[in-house]
Amino acid sequence: MSMQILDVADAAPGPAFRAGRHALAHIPGNEGWPLIGRTLNILADPKGEVERMAAKYGLVHRTRVLGETGIALLGPEANEFVLCDQTKLFSSTHGWSVLLDRLFPRGLLLLDFEEHRLHRRTISVAFKAEAMKSYLATLDAGIAAQAARWRSQPGPMLLYPAVKQMTFDLAAASFLGPDTGRQINDVKRAISDMVEAALAPIRKPWPGTKMARGLKGRAHIIGYFSREVSRRRSLNGEDLFSQLCRATHENGDLLSTQEIIDHMGFLMTAAYETLTSSLTTFVYFLAVNPQWQAALRDEVVSLGLSPEQPLPYEKLASLTQVEMAFKEAMRLKPPVPSIARRATRDFALGGYAIPAGTLIGLNPLYTHHMADHWAEPERFDPMRFTDAAQRGRHRYAYLPFGGGAHMCLGLHFAYMQAKCFARHFLQNLTVSLEPGYRPVWQMWPIPKPKDGLRVNLGRVG
Known about the structure:
Mean pLDDT: 91
Strand order of the largest sheet: 1-2-8-5-3
Oligomer: single chain
Radius of gyration: 22 Å
Number of strands: 12
Helix content: 40-55%
C-alpha cells in the first residue's frame, strides 16, 4: 500500500469544528454500528481492527469511534505530514478535546501553536540537566528500595500492579517532592479514575459511570494542587511541582494557579500511566527473551557498580543495549497507541479531499508493525535500534513519544527511569514466565496485561 501526499489548500487557519458525516462519505471505510460505530471493535482489538480496515480500505479510510466519524491516516508519511505541521493545519487542542477536555483541560497536549510553544518553553525548565540529575537521585533511591523488596521475596507475583505502585511513588517523589502527606493515595486514585474516564464509551457523567468517577477525580486534583501552590512558591524545592510554582512566562509573570494545576495533572498522568505500561512491557519481553535478559544484565554489571552504589548521571549513556531493548518493547506495545488531531481547514491527502473540522487519527501501533519498515514486525529484536539499522528507516516509522512540536517533553525522563530501573532490576533479579503462559493485553487507551502479568522472580547471585 502506498500513499501520495498532495498539496495543502492555501487558506488561513480557522476555528475547528466537526465535519459532517456526509462530507466524508466519498472516503472509503466502514462506520460500523449506529451511534457506537466501531468503538467496541477498537476496544476489543485495536491492532487487528486497524490492520483489517487498512487492508480493506487503504491507509486513508473513514471510521467512527466514540460517537464521531473521522479519518484514519496511517504510515510514516502520514505521521510526518500531520505531526511536522508548519502551516497550523492540524489542531491538537480540538483533536484530543473529544477525549480529554473535561478531564485534562489546558494541559500541554491540549494547547496549540504559539500558545503551546510558550507554555512548553516555560515548563521545559523542569526537564533541564540539573533538574534531571535531581530526579535521578530520587528515582535511584526509590527503585533500589523496590528491587531490594522484590529480592527479599522471590517467586511468583503480579508484575503490573507492583510496577504501577512503584511508578506512582516515583512520580510523586520526583514531581511532588517528599512532603506529600497522607493525601497522596487519594491523588493516585484520582489520576487513575481520570485516565479510565478518558476513553470510556459513555461520555456523560451519569451516576456510577467511569466519567462520573473521572470528573470527581479531577475535582480532587484541583483541590489538592490549589492548596499547595502558594506554599510551594515560598520554598526552594527541586521537585517538578515546586519548579513550576516558581516558573515564569516570557514576560516575567508567574504561571497562574490554574495553569500549574492543568500542567501538573497532565504531567503526573503521563509520567505515571505511560511509564507503568512501558516498564511492564519491557520486563515482559525480557522474560520471554532470556538471551536478551542475560545480555542486558552483563551490560549493567559492566558499569562496575555495587548494588548499594547510586547510578551516576554520567553512566546513563553507557547503557546502550538497555535503551535499545526498551525502545523495541515500546515499538511492539507503544504507550500511546493512537494520536488525535483535527483539521483546521480543507486539505488533500492520498488523493482524497478532506474538509476542515475532520477528526484525524494517527496510529503508532499500526506504524510500528508495518512489514515495509520492520522485518518480521512481531519479533522482539533490539538490534533494530543500532545506529546503522536506524539510518535507513523513515524517521516517523517509530513514534512512541509522538513527534513534531508536541513530542513528549518527558521522553528523556522516561529513558532515564527505564535505565535506572533496568540497572537495579537486572542486578538483583531474574524474571521468567510459567511454560505455556501468554498474557492477554489490553492495548487501548494504554497497553496493560489484563491479568496483571504473572511472572516468577529469582535472585541474582
